[in-house]
Amino acid sequence: MTILGSAALAVWLECLPEAEGDFDRWYRQEHLAERVGLPGFLRGRRGVALRGTPRYFAFYEADGVEAFRSAAYLERQANPTALTRQIMPRVRNFARGVYRRRESVGGSAGPSLVPTLATLRLAAEPGPEASESGAGERTLAALAAVPGVLSASLFELDPQVTGGMTSERSLVGGRLPAPPGFCLCEVEDAAVIERPVWRALFETQGAPRGPWGGSTDLGVYRLLHFQEHGAA
Fold it and tell me: What are the distances in angstroms from CA 7 to CA 40, 98, 167, 211, 217?
């Protein structure tokens, strides 16, 4: 599957155990369609962790970062629905960021619906030398060459567009800082990360060889929900 657009909203989060059922119904019946229906949004996905934390990962592809500062999006942030007001206080470990897509490798072939997503949250912002030297693309190409990896993309946080507090975000019961960058790999299944060729790309502390530096936090997520803009 090809990553759409030049920007994305990425959210890692979980909720209180007793709220799992309500949280899932809210996301399926209201939140996903509400977000993906906004101007500039192209596709939304949410997965549940097979490995790593937080428990859920939501990923919204967009035409560009302007989608996340449009009047329609800001209106939703300023006026959360009644159900959103019930759910968000029960959310924990909420890390949200708006990201610009820097590079992608792969994705032109493969299934139309990718069942598993792997996120590598970077502790350090990808430096400009990664693009200038081509090292970032080579690292992504190495990841995409692992059997079972369908695409690999590098995203860089846009702190200005990510923004500060809104009425909706103020409801969240517990927050974490957004990672300054992350790599998203679309993979066939969770077994991909156990393969020796995947493991060989990482140092003993878990940091990928190449230009990104710092440690990474790996999460592997099975797809739960998927919707494209304009779909019923």
Answer: 10, 7, 23, 21, 21
Report the distance separating Cα 178 and Cα 155, nearest Å.
12
pLDDT score, position 138: 79
Asked whether the beta carbons of 223 and 115 are under 8 A apart, the reply is yes
Which residue, chain included where needed, has tokens 């890692």? 12
Q: The domain 7-228 is classified under which CATH number: 3.40.228.10, 3.90.226.10, 3.30.70.100, 3.30.1370.10?
A: 3.30.70.100
Q: pLDDT, tens digit, for every residue of 177-188?
A: 999 999 999 999
**Nearest Cα residue to 182 out of 147, 221, 148:** 221
Q: Give the pair of three-digit tokens for residue 88.
A: 């968000």
11-33 residue pLDDT tens: 999 999 999 999 999 999 999 99
Phi, psi of 211 (to 5 degrees): -90, 0
Provide the sign of the torsion angle of the four alpha carbons 27, 4, 175, 54, taken in this order: positive
